[in-house]
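By way of example, we now present a protein record of this kind:
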Amino acid sequence: MEVINSVGRRKSAIARVYLSEGKGNIRINNKDLAEYFPTGTLQYIVRQPLELLQAAEKYDIRVILAGGGIKGQAEALRLGISRALYAINPEDKSALRAAGFVTRDPRVVERKKPGQKKARKRFQFSKR
């Protein structure tokens, strides 16, 4: 099997995923999964699509992660892994979609507007 590549995005995080047959190793920016995401919750988020399809021990995953925060990066990686898995086997897409792993979350930070403190917060108004 050749290497399958895909991209996952969330907020400003971008995960480039390279999936190949192997023993279940996940390397992120040349670090192990547990080293890059020290909390169990983030590791769980990353492994969700693999656990759903019982494919955790079938593939080696190499990832290049950039931008965003740690949670956004984990969710971008989940989307990237899901896209790579259904590129290998298109029948898995319905199961991944039912779990909500195929849909790209479009929410991003709203920009700051001129004449305001933040995106929506205004400066204090004074009548006199």
The mean pLDDT is 94. The chain has one domain: 4-99.
